[in-house]
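Lecture notes, part 5. Sequence design as translation. It can be helpful to think of inverse folding as translation between two languages: the language of shapes and the language of residues. The source text, in structure tokens, appears below.
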């Protein structure tokens, strides 16, 4: 007799395990489900097997080949173009089935007596015999009713609760006569239960149900997958073990080393070429594949580890599934029901919460807590907040469901009944995310002052006037065109401090979310006169008469990103000629290359119009690049120096606040004007806080981040900066080009290197320990200062990526180049050494 093995399923309910495997090839006790079925067939003298394939067919063909190694003869039939259904694919091979044949599902584990079922079929003279079994909960299966002679009278595929009329279900194993296939049309999608069997019933063909004794489990979802493993290991089903029994209930493969101090509670299965470290605990039900390493002191309670997994020291695994080649580093926790797809990495001390699924080739950062499925993107971060706010891939990391939960987490850190502002840029993706945040906030009893599409400078100015507990702004990330950035403000409009970020993260990861009663749900209101309030504050902080007499002409390029309504109207009110370019909104952000092209075009327009200067505005009104009167761009450190020079010329003896990595030219400029420089950590919150902690601050920020004018509002404001530039150029009677020519020439270079999260702390410690204390400044990162040359090198870990930045600054270009190269080599050597040590410990 021939058997047809139905092996075409993709197993969507077993994802992520079936992302790169067809369901019949998923391992049970380190053997594919299909191999257990072939062993069952072989035990009942069925050795001719035709496998019908559709999803990833080469995986099964490569494994079984001609079947000789497994004691059977294998033939394959591939559904090339489209799936033909359970019956359609058998119809497709009807020419190979000229006698009674058996059909068996490729995604179940069973030890039914197939020969007894075949004897029953022949005894009854049946055209189609369904092998049945009784189950406690038949909702997920096809229910069958037979009469006293076991002839099938009625069946229903996957009934609802109200439709259940029997606990006897279809197991997907059939014994058929070849003529029943004549009822099926060729090359059409047809199903046994939905199409063929109802037709046979209607035609009065003899169709019987054989109720089998024994074990049967449909491995249709992840819980059933784990249970079938535990049942097989516990002897509830007759299967062939891949390894001999070394002691009662403990099966161990060849060339496997188990440290004598390891504690093993049977039943346990351990594959070939494994290494089980000292003091490891393996609880009953643990299944370990081939070539698996388990580090010292790991605690494994019923996990299922596929081939090639690496488990770090002191890791804790609880009734989870770790797929092929996945690595769980030191002290990682993977909890009950979690599934980690193939070739993923769970970082040191990371935790995957119960029931969470991680798709293949993902990375969970060290210390991260993952409590939602990780399907898209590449990484689960250990923190929500990075260098600036919460950021992630638009509609992949930052999804509506993520934003709802984030809004609820933020609202749960505030008093019930509090109010917050919510604002955004004008893109549709930002509208979607802001509405989701609003829903989360309302659900925990927070009221919303919805500012809708508003430039950030306007939102920060408005916020303190509304008496709210804080604010949120959503926008496309200014530097990463496929990312969303969500920023949180305190009641003054300053970015919230790290302590507040940690509270929000705690509420999010621990799911410590308040739930409001119906009458406590937050309300949404829409404040008016936003632009008028901002305009009034704007005018008060300017020398309006100087601007009116300037007769300036300014070309403003909005690069299709920022609403152009506010600034040109203000400048027009002051008698300035504002020429606006590219003010219409694009739903997709421009690439850096596109913006560079537009910057060149801006320079040409400035020259052609003989304008005072040009400016390209970005980051929802926070950042800018200047173009002088001859079309030369001024940006980055040169822009920082230019703004410091102009402000301190207008307000000598003032204080300028810059990030720790800003060019040393700022100090030289400050000395010229008897001013002072304060350096802060390299993040916007630190800059804002420092600007408001010192009453004599006249300017904060940098060319890369934007500029803060504390007398106006606490954040960056490109619009006010443009107006202030017009004022200062008029009063100082100079052009941008002339001022640029007077700036000190300092060499300032930066390089970026990859540096694993797990190495960053050790690298900083190494740098501190290997330099004299009087040469170090530890504002942010490690700055090594050569005071004799007024030069320095800064090694600054990136707050959001596994990177480190190396800055070198000085008047001598050769000194800068040499020290940049030297420190790059030192950092690289240390990273390689640390990684080597960690790999040795794991092995």
């Amino acid at each position: 007799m021939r058997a047809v093995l139905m092996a075409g399923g993709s197993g969507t309910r077993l994802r992520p395990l079936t992302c790169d495997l067809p369901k019949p090839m998923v391992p049970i006790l380190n053997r594919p489900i299909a191999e257990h079925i072939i062993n069952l067939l072989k035990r009942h003298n069925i050795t001719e097997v035709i496998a019908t394939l559709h999803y990833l067919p080469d995986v099964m063909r490569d494994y079984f080949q001609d079947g000789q190694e497994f004691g059977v003869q294998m033939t394959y039939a591939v559904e090339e173009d489209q799936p033909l259904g359970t019956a359609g694919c058998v119809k497709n091979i009807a020419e190979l089935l000229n006698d009674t044949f058996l059909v068996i599902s490729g995604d179940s584990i069973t030890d039914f007596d197939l020969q007894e079922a075949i004897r029953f079929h022949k005894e009854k003279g049946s055209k189609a015999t369904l092998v049945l079994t009784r189950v406690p909960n038949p909702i997920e299966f096809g229910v069958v009713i037979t009469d006293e002679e076991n002839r099938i009278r009625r069946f229903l595929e996957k009934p609802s609760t109200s439709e259940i009329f029997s606990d006897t279900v279809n197991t997907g194993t059939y014994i058929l006569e070849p003529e029943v296939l004549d009822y099926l049309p060729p090359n059409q999608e047809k199903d046994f239960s939905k199409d063929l069997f109802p037709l046979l019933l209607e035609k009065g063909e003899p169709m019987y149900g054989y109720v089998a004794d024994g074990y049967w489990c449909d491995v249709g979802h992840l819980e059933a997958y784990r249970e079938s493993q535990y049942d097989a290991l516990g002897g509830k089903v007759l299967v062939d073990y891949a390894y001999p029994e070394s002691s009662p209930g403990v099966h161990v493969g060849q060339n496997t080393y188990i440290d004598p101090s390891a504690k093993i509670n049977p039943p346990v299965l351990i594959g070939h070429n494994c290494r089980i470290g000292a003091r490891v605990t393996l609880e009953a039900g643990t299944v370990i594949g081939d070539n698996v390493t388990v580090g010292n002191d790991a605690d494994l309670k019923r996990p299922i580890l596929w081939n090639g997994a690496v488990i770090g020291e002191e890791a804790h695994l609880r009734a989870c599934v770790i797929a092929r080649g996945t690595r769980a580093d030191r002290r990682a926790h993977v909890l009950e029901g979690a599934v980690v797809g193939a070739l993923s990495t769970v970082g040191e001390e990371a935790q995957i919460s119960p029931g969470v699924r991680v798709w293949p080739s993902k990375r969970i950062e060290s210390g991260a807590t993952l409590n939602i499925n990780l399907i898209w993107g590449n990484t689960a971060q250990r923190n929500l907040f990075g260098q600036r706010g919460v950021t992630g891939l638009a509609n992949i990391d930052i999804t509506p469901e993520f934003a709802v939960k984030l809004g609820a987490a933020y609202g749960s850190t505030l008093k019930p009944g509090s109010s917050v502002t919510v604002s955004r840029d004008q893109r549709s993706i930002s509208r979607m995310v802001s509405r989701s945040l609003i829903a989360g906030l309302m659900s925990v009893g927070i009221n919303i002052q919805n500012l809708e599409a508003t430039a950030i400078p306007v939102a920060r100015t408005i916020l303190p006037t509304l008496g709210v507990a804080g604010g949120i702004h959503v926008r496309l990330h200014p530097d990463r065109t496929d990312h969303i950035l969500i920023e949180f403000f305190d009641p003054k409009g300053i970015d919230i401090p790290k302590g507040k970020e940690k509270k929000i993260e705690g509420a999010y990861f621990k799911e410590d979310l308040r739930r409001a009663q119906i009458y406590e749900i937050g309300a949404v209101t829409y404040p008016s006169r936003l632009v008028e309030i901002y305009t009034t504050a704007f005018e008060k902080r300017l020398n309006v008469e100087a601007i009116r007499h300037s007769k300036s002409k300014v070309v403003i390029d909005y690069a299709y990103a920022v609403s152009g309504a506010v600034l040109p109207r203000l400048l027009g009110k002051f008698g300035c000629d504002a020429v606006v370019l590219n003010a219409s909104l694009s739903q997709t952000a421009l690439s850096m290359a596109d913006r560079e092209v537009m910057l060149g075009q801006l320079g040409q327009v400035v020259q052609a119009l003989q304008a005072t200067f040009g400016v390209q505005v970005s980051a929802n009104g926070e950042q800018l690049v200047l173009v002088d009167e001859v079309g030369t761009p001024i940006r980055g450190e040169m822009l920082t120096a230019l703004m410091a020079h102009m402000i301190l010329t207008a307000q000598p003896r003032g204080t300028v606040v810059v990030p720790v990595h800003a060019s040393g030219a700022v100090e030289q400029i400050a000395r010229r004007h008897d001013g002072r420089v304060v350096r802060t950590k390299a993040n916007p919150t630190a800059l804002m806080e420092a600007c408001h902690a010192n009453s004599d601050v006249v300017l904060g920020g940098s060319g890369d981040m934007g500029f803060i004018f504390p007398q106006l509002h606490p954040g960056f404001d490109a619009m006010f900066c443009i107006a202030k530039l017009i004022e200062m150029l008029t009063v100082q009677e100079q052009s941008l080009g002339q001022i640029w020519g007077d700036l000190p020439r300092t060499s300032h270079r930066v390089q970026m290197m990859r540096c694993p999260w797990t190495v960053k702390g050790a690298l900083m410690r190494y740098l501190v320990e290997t330099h004299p204390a009087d040469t170090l400044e530890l504002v942010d990162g490690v700055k090594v200062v050569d005071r004799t040359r007024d030069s320095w090198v800064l090694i600054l870990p990136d707050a959001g990526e596994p990177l480190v930045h190396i800055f070198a600054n000085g008047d001598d270009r050769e000194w800068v180049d040499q020290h940049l190269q030297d420190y790059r080599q030192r950092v690289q050597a240390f990273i390689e050494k640390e990684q080597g040590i960690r790999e040795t410990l794991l092995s």
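The translated text above is only one of many valid answers, since several sequences can fold into similar shapes. The radius of gyration is 35 Å.
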